[in-house]
Amino acid sequence: MISKKVILTGSFGVGKTSLFNQFIYSRFSDKYLTTIGVKVNKKTIEVNGREISLLVWDIAGEVSQDKVPTSYFLGASGIIYVFDLTRPSTYKNLEEDINYLKDMVKGGIIKVVGNKEDLVTEEQLEEVKKEISMPWDITTSAKTGKNVESLFQQLGAELLD
Predict the structure, then answer these.
(1) How many whole angstroms separate alpha carbon 54 and alpha carbon 34?
(2) 7 class by beta-carbon count within 10 Å (0-12 exposed, 13-18 middle, 19+ buried)
(3) CA–CA–CA angle 54, 104, 55 (5° rounding)
(4) Are 138 and 113 in contact (CB under 8 A)?
(5) Which residues 6+ apart lie within 8 Å of 81 measured at CB?
(6) More reliable by pLDDT, 122 or 31
(7) Mind listing the domains of the chain with CATH numbers?
(8) Distance between CA atoms of 105 and 110, rounded to whole angstroms?
(9) What string of DSSP letters covers the chain?
(10) Distance, CA of 23 to CA of 148 (rounded, Å)
(11) Any residues with CB less than 8 A from the CB of 146 and at least 6 apart, and which?
(12) Which residues on adjacent β-strands are paired with residue 38?
């Protein structure tokens, strides 16, 4: 079986831990607890008849901040960059952050995810799309579980290719 390291990153409060918990444990909590350091867990998924074990790292803080040790990115095959659809401050540096991540994980697959879809209307979502100059991969709701499994399935498929 193939095993791949995946990093969940982005600004604080965007829902990285909630996505992690929804994917690994199929649960959601409204309680906000900031992640200190890193949380790691593993889940095996099946993609096109093949199994892949995803070692998911939920890291604290910002992408390019000094508080995130660069060693966390060593050996990563995939990155899930999460921003909050309701907070423009979490995607105003999107392009810069993605370029930084591309340097950190050369050749790695990066998925850009707008989270908290359950908190925006279709009109608000269209406004966010206008504000962001680069495309992103998927919108999710860690609360309802919408597209969470799809996100990891897509990433798993790309990691297997």
Answers:
(1) 23
(2) buried
(3) 10
(4) yes
(5) 9, 10, 63, 94, 97, 98, 101, 110, 111, 112, 113
(6) 122
(7) 2-160 (3.40.50.300)
(8) 9
(9) -EEEEEEEEESTTSSHHHHHHHHHHS---S------SEEEEEEEEEETTEEEEEEEEEE-S-SS-TTS-GGGGTTEEEEEEEEETT-GGGTTTHHHHHHHHHHHSTT-EEEEEEE-GGGS-HHHHHHHHHH-SS--SEE--TTT-TTHHHHHHHHHHHHH-
(10) 6
(11) 117, 118, 139, 140
(12) 59
Q: Residue 11 has which token pair?
A: 């600004």
Q: What is the largest CA-CA distance in the chain?
A: 43
Whose structure tokens read 């992408």? 63
Q: Which residues contact 46 (CB under 8 A, 6 or more apart)?
A: 52
Question: What's the gap between Cα 75 and its chain centre?
Answer: 17
Residue 68 is predicted with a pLDDT of: 72
Judge contact between 116 and 90, C-beta under 8 A: no
Output the pTM of the full model: 0.92
The pLDDT assigned to 120 comes to 98
CB contact at 8 A, 107 and 101: no
Q: Percent of the chain scored above 90 by pLDDT?
A: 76
- Counting Cβ atoms within 10 Å, is residue 25 exposed (0-12), middle (13-18) or buried (19+)? exposed
